[in-house]
Design brief:
Blueprint lengths: L1 H36 L15 H25 L2 H27 L1 H16 L8 H14 L9 H6 L29 H11 L1 H36 L1
Helix pairs in contact: 1-2, 1-8, 2-3, 3-8
């Protein structure tokens, strides 16, 4: 009976981790594709220049693949050490995500202030040598969200030391349109505009986060259940 339960949990555990591993492959693939095709699109942060979407996806995908691989091998081999390692790694990730979420909601105001200050520092790197990624990122955001600057279009005045903005701030794009009068530029602040867009899509973000948490809890349950079954089977055989 114990052996039959073990086999059932084993195949469920293997199927779960196979999907987990394939998901990691998908995330890694998207990250590599972004790095190869959109390599010029990087982070807006001057403090964390490597914190781009491509790099985050590559790191996340690699880590998920590694955890899924450990889980698959642990299930197939019925190895207590690998099963426990998988459980601890997944638990560590779950606790880290929960901690980040709690800190984010607890220090939202401070994070807002720091983010705006950091983004304003990043504006001074716009158009400079070696910062093509940041330049393209700001151009895309200002064009797509119809905004200009972090908190106001005047943020660019400090960058250029003149009354001008990038051409991506213009209502109607044309070469050197950023030198025209303020009436021809977008007036909405980019930080608040993007923040409002994220809040409008908060439900989708929440559902994604909840699904992620449920998948992780399911993985933890499978891992611990199989670990206990392996221990019982070893004790029974002994």
């Amino acid at each position: 009976m114990a052996r039959g339960c073990l086999q059932g949990v084993k195949y469920l555990m293997f199927a779960f981790n196979l999907l987990f591993w394939l998901g990691g492959c998908g995330v890694l693939g998207v990250g590599i594709w972004l790095a190869a095709t959109q390599g010029n699109f990087a982070t807006l942060s001057s403090s964390f220049p490597s914190l781009s979407a491509a790099n985050l996806l590559i790191v996340t995908g690699t880590f998920v693949m590694a955890i899924g691989f450990v889980g698959c091998i642990g299930a197939l081999k019925e190895n207590k050490c690998l099963l426990l390692t998988f459980f601890l790694l997944l638990l560590l990730v779950f606790l880290l995500e929960a901690t980040i979420a709690v800190l984010f909601f607890a220090y939202t105001d401070k994070i807002d202030r720091y983010a705006q200050q950091d983004l304003k520092k990043g504006l001074h790197l716009y158009g400079t040598r070696g910062n093509v990624g940041l330049t393209n990122a700001w151009s895309i955001i200002q064009t797509d969200f119809r905004c200009c600057g972090v908190s106001n279009y005047t943020d660019w005045f400090e960058v250029y030391n003149a009354t001008r903005v990038p051409d991506s701030c213009c209502l109607e794009f044309s070469d050197s349109c950023g030198l025209h009068a303020p009436g021809t530029w977008w007036k909405a602040p980019c930080y608040e505009t993007v923040k409002a867009w994220l809040q409008e899509n908060l439900l989708a973000v929440g559902i994604f986060g909840l699904c992620t948490a449920l998948v992780q809890i399911l993985g933890l349950t499978f891992a611990m259940t199989m670990y206990c079954q392996v221990v019982k089977a070893d004790t029974y055989c002994a």
